[in-house]
């Protein structure tokens, strides 16, 4: 019986190791497009916590299916479908099947939509449907992703991106007031402080005093407006800073100190949960995946 139990445990460990080996995430940056980011990823065990992005998420599912929270409910994106997440919209993500999922994503910014003269500074695009079936748009996203990752032709890259964004807005978008307009000056001041001084060890009382609101009122209104508590928003801002510092060549140990994390282990846990890869893996894929833009 002992041998049988050991064999079963060994089989389970091998299966777990194979699944972990299939976890992959490659981020790339198009500097000439305002720092537009792309992602190619395959996940089996990854479970993204709730977070938001300054930009939009525009992704296509290549295999499997993804389950994610957005717009107050859970949604499932099957193979060949398109995932749409609005800028600053809280969401998460995990596999909807035992076999995981793989996808490719673009993260366009509100400024890039504004360059299309599709909206003003007081407006942002809004996509009501979290999951859409649109073969033509999915094909365009795929070839745009390919160009942004492997082509050095800037005219091609920019043209494909703006063609994709234009078709996306035409078929699935509408305009709404920007979050900064909706939030009001006090909440925006708190949010801006957390972004600008994310590494500082500020208390809720100190943050509330800064914006002249009672602590509980700030906590409640901040989460209602931005979908995250001030502490969650601070952690997210620290992770964004950490990624920037890693791209500039800082070591993970130094990044942990400079971005406000307790130590490198704390940074590693939060980074993996947010981005699906460790800081060390992120640095390695950055080095290996950079393309020439000459």
Highlighted features:
294 residues; alpha+beta; Jelly Rolls; Arc Repressor Mutant, subunit A; 2 domains; globular; DNA-binding; transcription regulation; DNA-binding transcription factor activity
Account of the 3D structure:
Keywords: DNA-binding, Transcription, Transcription regulation. GO terms for molecular function: DNA-binding transcription factor activity; sequence-specific DNA binding. This is Helix-turn-helix domain-containing protein. This protein has 294 residues and is an alpha+beta fold. It has 2 domains: 23-179, Sandwich (Jelly Rolls), CATH 2.60.120; 184-278, Orthogonal Bundle (Arc Repressor Mutant, subunit A), CATH 1.10.10. It has 12 helices and 12 strands. The strands form 3 sheets. It has a 6-stranded antiparallel beta sheet. The protein has a 4-stranded antiparallel beta sheet with strand order 3-8-5-6. A hairpin with a 2-residue loop joins strand 5 (66-70) and strand 6 (73-77). The longest helix has 20 residues, at 2-21. It is globular, with a radius of gyration of 20 Å. The N and C termini lie far apart (64 Å).
Portion in strands: 15-25%
Q: Assign a percent range to the helix content.
A: 40-55%
* Beginning-to-end CA distance, first to last residue: 64 Å
**How would you describe the shape?**
globular
InterPro entries: AraC-bd, AraC_XylS_family_regulators, Homeodomain-like_sf, HTH-like, HTH_AraC
Region (Disordered): 1-23
Protein name: Helix-turn-helix domain-containing protein
Biased composition (Polar residues): 1-11
């Amino acid at each position: 019986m002992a041998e049988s139990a050991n064999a079963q445990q060994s089989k389970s460990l091998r299966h777990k190791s194979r699944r972990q080996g299939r976890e992959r995430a490659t981020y790339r940056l198009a500097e000439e497009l305002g720092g537009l980011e792309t992602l190619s990823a395959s996940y089996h065990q990854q479970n993204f916590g709730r977070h938001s992005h300054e930009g939009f998420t525009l992704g296509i599912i290549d295999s499997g299916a993804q389950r994610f929270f957005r717009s107050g409910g859970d949604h499932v994106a099957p193979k060949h479908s398109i995932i749409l997440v609005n800028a600053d919209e809280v969401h998460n993500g995990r596999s909807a099947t035992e076999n995981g999922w793989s996808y490719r994503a673009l993260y366009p910014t509100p400024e890039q939509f504004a360059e299309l003269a599709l909206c003003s500074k007081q407006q942002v695009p809004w996509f009501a449907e979290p999951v859409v079936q649109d073969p033509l748009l999915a094909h365009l996203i795929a070839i745009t992703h390919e160009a942004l990752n492997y082509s050095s032709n800037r005219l091609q890259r920019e043209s494909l991106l703006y063609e994709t964004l234009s078709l996306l807005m035409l078929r699935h978008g509408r305009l709404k007031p920007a979050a900064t307009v909706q939030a009001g000056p006090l909440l925006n001041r708190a949010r801006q402080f957390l972004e600008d001084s994310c590494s500082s060890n500020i208390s809720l009382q100190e943050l509330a005093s800064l914006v002249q609101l009672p602590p509980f009122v700030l906590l409640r209104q901040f989460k209602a407006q931005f979908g995250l508590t001030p502490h969650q928003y601070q952690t997210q801002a620290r992770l964004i800073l950490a990624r920037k510092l890693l791209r500039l060549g800082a070591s993970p140990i130094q990044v942990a100190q400079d971005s406000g994390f307790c130590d490198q282990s704390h940074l590693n846990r939060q980074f993996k949960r947010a981005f699906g890869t460790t800081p060390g893996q992120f640095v390695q894929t950055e080095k290996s995946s950079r393309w020439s833009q000459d």
